[in-house]
Amino acid sequence: MNEIAKRIGITELTNIFVPFALLLAAALVVPEARQDVLHARIIFTIWVSLGFLIPSVVLFFLPGQGPKKSAYWLLCWTAGFIAYIVHFYYTVGVFFHGSLAEVYSAQRPVIATSNLIDTVWWALDVFLAWFVLDRKWIRVQRVLAHIYIPATFFVSAVLIKHGFVKGLGIVMTIAVGIALIIRFISWRNRAEGHTAVTMAPPGAQA
Amino acid sequence: MSSIPSLTRKLIRVLQVTALGASALILLFVVVLLIAESRWNRPVEKPDEHSAFLYASTGTELMPKVVFDVLPDMFPDHFQPAGPAAGDWITQFGFIRGRPGINEGLPLGFSISYQRPKSGAPSPVAFVGFSCGLCHVSPLTKPDGNTVMVEGMGNASLDFIAWVDGVRSSILDKRMTPAAIGEACERKFHRKLTAGEKIMVRAWLPGSRRFFENNLPKYDAPFSGRDLRDANLLPNGPARTQPFRNLIRIVLDRPATSGDHAYCKVPSLYEQKNRHWGQYDGSVGNRLSRSVLAAIATGATTDNLLEPHIESGVLQAVNYTVNLHGPRYAAFFPDRAAAVNSQQAARGRAVYMRYCVDCHGIRDEQTGAWTMGRLTGEVVPAQTIGTDAERLSFRYYDELPDAIFAFFPKGHPLRPKREDLRPGPKGRVRGYMNAPIESVFARAPFLHNGSILTLAELINLKPRRDVFYRGANVYDPDDLGLASPPSPTTTVYWRYDTHARGNSNAGHDYPWPYRGTGWNEPDLMDLLAFLKTQY
Predict the structure, then answer these.
(1) Same domain membership, residue B49 and residue B36
(2) What is the value of ipTM here, to two decimals?
(3) Cβ separation of A36 and B17 shorter than 8 Å?
(4) How far is B283 from chain A (nearest CA, A)?
(5) Which residues on chain A are in Cβ contact (under 8 Å) with B204?
(6) Pairing of β B240-241 and β B264-265
(7) How far B118 CA sits from the closest chain A CA (Å)?
(8) Domain extent at residue B95
(9) Who has the most CB within 10 Å: A54, B31, B90, B524?
C-alpha cells in the first residue's frame, strides 16, 4: 500500500466514508420514489461524484503536504471516483445498454471520448494512489489528471448542463480558482524567501 | 488529541467505528435493494404469440394495478357517464369483460407488468397497461344476444378516447390522493396498501398528474360525466381514434387541435402477411413499425420499448397477426350461411370478379391464400375514390414522417425506416389504399372512418344512413354489419352524423352509386350473398 494510504486514520476515514456512504445511498434510493428511476440515479450520482471531486481537487492544489491533507485528498478523490463509476454504470451500462456505439451516437465523439478518458484515467490514478509507490511520472500524470478531469466536469456541468449540477460546477470552479490563487501566493512568498512551504502536491511521498 | 482524556478518545473511537459500521450497513442495504429491484421485473418465459397479443405489455403502463382496481369506485362520475344503472365502466365504455383466473380477471386488452410508466423502471408492484388485444379483439353480438369474441377485428364497441378522458379527469382531480387511494383499497379489498404499493402510488401519482397537467395545452382539459358520450364534444366515438393526433403531440410537440378531423376506425388485423403498407392511407410500411407507432401514440416511449419484456411482447404480438385468420360467416351464422343460394353466390362472385377483385383481391379456394388483385396495395387519390378526405389533409401531414423518423434515436432497433413512411421516397399520393378484405363480414363498420354500418350499404345495395348510433351495436347478419337502433339507448348511445366534418359516408361508389347509372339491385344482392361465403 502507498504511504498516503497508510496515513489514513479512522478519523479521516469516518469523516469521508460516512457522508459518502449516506450520499451515495441516497442517490440510489431516493429515485425509487420517482417514476424515472434510472434518470434520477444518473443525475444524483454525478452530484455525489462532483461533491467529492471538489474537495479533492482543492486539497490537491492547495499548498502544503501534511499527512491529514494527503489522507483527505485520497479519500475524497476515491469517493468521487466510486460515485462516478456508479454514474458511469447507469449511464453507459444501463441507459446506453452497454453499447459504445449508442454512447458515441448520443453524446457525439468529443464528449463521449472525453468521458471515457475521464473514467480510465481516474481509475488509473486512484489505483496508483492506493497501491503504487511514488514516482515522478506518477506525480506528473496526477497533476495532469487533476487538470483534465475537473476541466471536463467544468465543460459538462457549467457549460452544457443546467440546474443543480451547474451550481456544483460553479462552486468547483470558484473553489479550485481560490486554491490555485492561494498556491500561487504561497509559491511567490516562498520564492521571495518568506516561507518554506513545501510545494509538492499531496500525491508525492514525504 | 493528546489533551483529550483517554476515556473521551475511546468514546470517540467507538462512535467512529459505529458510524463506519452503520454507513457500511446502509450501503449494504442499498446493494441488497438494487439486487431485489433487478428481480421485481419478474423474468418470465417468452410469451407465446397468442398470449402476447392478448395480454403482453406494449410499453403503455398507465397506473399501479391497485389504483386501476379502485379508480372507477373513487370516481363513478368519470367512469359511469350514463349513470350507475347503465352498468359498470367495462360495459359503458365497451371493454371486453375479463374472466376470473385469466390475467388477474382484468378486462381483455389490459396488460400486467412490473414496470413503471414511461421509463420502464422495475416496480415492486404490478402496473396496468394496454396490450394489442385492447383494440384488436371485438365483441360480436348476435341478434339472439349471444356474444362471441373475434380476435383481430377492430373493437367495434370500445370508446377508448372517452375512457382516457375519464382517467385523465380522475388523475387531475385533486380529491385523488395516496390516502384516498388507500381508503378506497380498504373499502374494496378490506386491506391496507402494502409498503410497495404505498411507495409506488406516491411515486406514480405526482408524476402522472404532472404529466397530464403539463400536457393540458396540447391535449386540452378532459371531459367527464355525461359529456363523455356527447358526439359534439368527443367526436371520435366508439371504435375510432385519430391515429396521428397523438403522434403530432408527442413527436412534434404541437397541440394537433387545428383542423384535425382525421377520424379512423380501429383497424382489423387479419393476415398481416398480406400487406406491407398499412394505415388506411398506406402511410406506414412494415407491420412492426405500425405497432410501434401505435404503442408510442398510446404512451410507450422509445426507451421502454427496448425493455426486453416489452420488446419481446410486441414482437410476439406482431408475429401473431401475420397468420391470424379472421372468422368465417358460416361459423357464426351457420343457418344463414346454409341458406345462401349457391347459384346466387356464384353470380355474385362474377360481379365481384368484374368490379371488386382488381382492388381487393380474392381468396384462392384451392390454396387458401389471398390472391392480390391487379391494383391491390395501390394508393388511390381521395378525389378518385371520393371518400372523406379529412384523414389525408390534417395539418402536419407532410411534416410528420420526417419528424417520426427523427424522433427515434439513431441505432434504435425499432426505428422505422424512412422509406417505410409516406409521404416519402415511396410515394406522396394522398389517398386510400386498396387493401385485401379477408373476413370482410367481420370488419364492420366500413370505410376508414366507420361511416357505413353494413356491407349492404357499402356496395350501395341499400341507401347509406345519414345518422345512426354507435356503441355496443348488435350484428346484422343479413346486411353484414352493425345494426343501429332508431334512437340512442344506454348501450348504443353515440350519435354518428355523417354530415359532420370527417364523418362523411360518401364515395367508394362501387360497383355503382345507389340507384345511379348502372345500378342493378339483383346483381348487388348476388354480390352480398357471395360476400357471405368469403373469409
Answers:
(1) no
(2) 0.87
(3) no
(4) 28
(5) 35
(6) antiparallel
(7) 7
(8) 44-322
(9) A54
